[in-house]
TrEMBL record:
Keyword field contains Acyltransferase: no
Record-given protein name: ICAM5 protein
Chain segments carrying region Disordered: 11-45
Pfam family membership, one: Ig_3
Ig-like domain location: 74-157
A GO term for molecular function: integrin binding
């Protein structure tokens, strides 16, 4: 007495005064059904923090701090696959979810049904080991608190192209092996038989060879054999 002049200021991170309310006010008791002076109709997240109020009259002053928390629903939901949303078959990956909210939100998931998917204890992530085709699809995370809900999604693709390559290589290998076998057989039939020892009687009676001549030297009889086309 007399009623004090009251001013309030928001403190910065280092404790210094960051901002001051536009008008200093006295502190009369509000009438029933009316907001007290200085009330904000729509609080924003920027208004959260610690405020310092000072009351002053002709006889002195008093200071008190008050911390204001502004609650809000989930915002900025992020869903990401690590190390990548493009996964190689047989490898592992993790899908993580995060959201800004006060109070902190709870999380739930909608994801492809697969036995190798495991949820973390806090439900903020899903871990998959030994990825298969069953793990590809949309992973949707929903963050919820008492002020609302928000969802985010990511599409995971399981790359099986290496299997196609292996199958193609296998098929190519099979064709190549068959080709080599045919070529080898042709070579053995058309070339290998031109070298080595022959049974003259068999050559004379064969449709693939004919005895041309016979001569004698110190090594014995030498026969000339002509091979026909196979």
């Amino acid at each position: 007495n007399p009623p004090p002049l009251v001013t309030c200021a928001k403190l910065g991170d280092n404790g210094d005064i960051a901002s001051v309310t536009p008008n200093a006010t006295r502190a009369p008791q509000p009438a029933d059904g009316q907001d007290p002076p200085g009330t904000t109709a729509n609080a924003t997240r920027a208004q959260a923090g610690t405020y310092q109020c000072r009351a002053t009259n002709a006889h002195g002053s008093a200071v008190r701090n008050v911390t204001v928390a502004v609650e809000y629903g989930p915002a900025g939901v992020t869903v990401r696959a690590l190390p990548s949303a493009n996964v190689t078959r047989g490898s592992g990956f993790t899908v993580e979810c995060g959201a800004e909210a006060l109070p902190p939100p709870s999380y739930s998931w909608a994801l492809p049904s697969a036995p190798n998917a495991r949820l973390a204890a806090d439900n903020r992530s899903v871990t998959v080991s030994g990825a298969t085709a069953a793990n590809r699809g949309v992973y949707t995370c929903t963050a919820v608190n008492r002020h609302g809900r928000r969802a985010g999604s990511v599409v995971v693709r399981v790359d099986e192209s290496w299997l196609v390559v292996l199958v193609a290589l296998g098929a190519l290998g099979g064709v190549t092996a068959l080709g080599l076998a045919v070529a080898g057989g042709f070579y053995l039939k058309s070339t290998a038989c031109k070298k080595g020892e022959y049974n003259v009687r068999d050559a004379e009676g064969s449709s693939e060879a004919a005895c041309l001549h016979r001569q004698r030297d110190n090594r014995g009889d030498i026969f000339g054999i002509q091979l026909t086309q196979p």
